[in-house]
Amino acid sequence: MDPYSSEDGPCVVCSQPGRACAGCFSVYYCGKDHQLQHWQGGHKQTCAPYKISKDPVLGRFLEATQEIKAGTFIMKSKPLVHGPQMSSEPVCLSCCRRLANEPDEWYQCSGCGWPLCSEKCEAAKEHKPECCAMSKAGFYMGRDCGKITILGGLEELNQWSWYGSIMPIRALLLPPKDYKKMMTLQTHLQEHRRNPEFNFKVRSVTNFIHNTLKMRDFQEEDIATVLAIFDTNAFAVVREDLNQVGRALYYMGSMMAHACRPNARLCHVGEKFEMALMAEQNIPLGASINITYMDRLNGTLKRLTHLRTTKYFDCSCPRCSDPSDMGLYLDSFRCTKCRGSGKDSLLLSTNSIKLTAEWKCQNPACSNTLSAADMIRLHKDLRNTVTNLEDSTQLSDHRDFMEKQLGSSGLLHSTSTYILRTKIFIIFNILGHSSGYMLKEMTQELLSYKIQLCEEMLQIARILHPGYSKTRAFLLVQLQESIMEQVYRNVKNKCLTLEDAQESAKKVKAGLDEAASILREPARKIEMGTRLTKFQHQCKHLGLSI
Ligand SMILES: C[S@@+](CC[C@H](N)C(=O)[O-])C[C@H]1O[C@@H](n2cnc3c(N)ncnc32)[C@H](O)[C@@H]1O
User: Fold this and answer.
1) Ligand 1 center to residue 140 CA distance, Å?
2) 299: phi > 0 → left, psi -120 to 50 → alpha, else beta; which?
3) What's the CA gap between 317 and 303, in Å, rounded?
4) Atom 23 in ligand 1: which residue has the minimum CA distance?
5) What letter does residue 355 receive in the DSSP assignment?
6) What tens digit of pLDDT does each residue of 84-133 get?
7) How remote is the CA of residue 250 from the centroid of ligand 1, in Å?
8) Is there an atom of ligand 1 within 6 Å of 258 CB?
9) Which residue in 64, 84, 69 sits closest to 26, CA to CA?
């Protein structure tokens, strides 16, 4: 059952139209009475398929209390607190939608002077805490002051202390019950305090709260704790469909452990930053329901470093413990000593969960080794190169990079993290997406190239993103649309019989249907509906019946 669905269903008690249970989405109630009756009659034991458990390594985590099938929605939850990101582009404080490019078009809150979308956003309860605090302190943001500060005319300190202070203020002013709940979340405050950037952030937010808003009841330590809670537990929310950019903290969402190949994923579903959790894979009874805190295409070195420096733990999940990184060797370089001997070998970590471990050629006859420091330096250089390349949508820049690196004097192999990242960039940012390379504009060669890249990346996704993962669905969409374009051209050019076209179109439909079954967030549902309609038009145009 679908937690986004507003459709009614028959009440489990009386069969009258009802709304879905907010805990499990699998039964409907016509109203509170029948909900209570059913709850007391046993639904309490079967509703949520998880509980909070404790583990010496993970700390608190969500444990499955029943088998959960892939594709199931496990929970839906409202944020405890949400608001703009720490260092934000200009957004409405109320709904976190990006503001118009022209500051003159911004609506100014009559209470505090902050730019918002509209009168409606001024009246919304989201904006009340900081607006009341500012009015009380006699603070009013003049239009020019807002323009200069928000558009980044001042240095970082101000950007942080202004936008970055909004969510902490809301958190500090939460009703006591919610505040208490929030304060039970993991802080890693001591570890955060060793980070100069964190302390700088604390000082600038405290400065705004104490000196500008004159809210001196909150000690710097309270503010630091709130910021540490956000850094450890909050999720960035970017909803391109709603033009929203922000951050949200969920209580249950904060209980989920990380895994580098997780069994669940979080989706943002409502306009008010509600989230839903979907099982990507089948989750056995008693297992930890986990999500990933970072992009799965990263190799072990990057994952371990990121998790250690931002979430303060050393990941030892099965993927990190496997020196081959699930057979993909994402971090490995080709051995420069074996090169030319006819045996192209890779360097492997001698202990994959230890960042200081030496790297050694996998060929037993070769003695080549590389220190961890050299390995990290090489990775840093390559990461910078690929990041810079991503400024370009010239296909040749990316193909040249791959050709050079995969050639006889290059360091990379076909499933290196940098090669895969480049392929993903080409699929999602160049071919079919940027000027000169739109689907209709692509040559046959480029269309076949895109199809080949999608197929290759779907093979990788089978390993890193199995089941109901967004990456798998997005790749399926890119592949099917490219295949359909090819079918379309071949039928028009009479290179394909209608029977064969019919066969291919059926496969395309199956691929799109699979993607739609994965992407069930409201925005994606609309997007998939549009894609399916376009596909049906194409079929109709070609005289195919699907
Ligand atoms: C969002 S919180 C998760 C809930 C937390 N365990 C608790 O007790 O509140 C993130 C923190 O959980 C711990 N954690 C999450 N996944 C982990 C893992 N795979 N291994 C070790 N610690 C993990 C780390 O301390 C991390 O900073």
Assistant:
1) 40
2) beta
3) 11
4) 58
5) T
6) 998 888 899 999 999 988 878 889 999 998 889 999 999 999 999 999 99
7) 14
8) yes
9) 69
- The token pair at 17 is 């139209």
Quote the ligand 1 centre to 508 CA distance (angstroms): 41
Give the residue from 164, 166, 221 showing the smallest Cα distance to 192. 221
Put the strands of the sheet holding 28-29 in their side by side order.
9-10, 17-20, 28-29
Task: Please report how many Cα atoms fall inside a 13 Å half-sphere around the Cα of residue 379, on the Cβ side.
Answer: 21
For 45-58, give one letter per residue: b (16+ CB within 10 A) or e. Answer: eebbbbeeeeeeeb
CA of 477 to the centre of ligand 1 (A): 34
Closest-CA residue, ligand 1 atom 21, reads 58
ipTM of the complex: 0.99
> Of how many residues is the chain composed?
546
Does residue 290 have its Cβ closer than 6 Å to ligand 1? no
Ligand 1 atom at minimum distance from 311 CA: 27
Which ligand 1 atom is at minimum distance from the Cα of 258?
Answer: 16
pLDDT digits (tens, 9 = 90+) for 260-314: 999 999 998 888 999 999 999 999 999 999 999 999 999 999 999 999 999 999 9
Q: Is 257 in the pocket of ligand 1 (CB under 6 A)?
A: yes
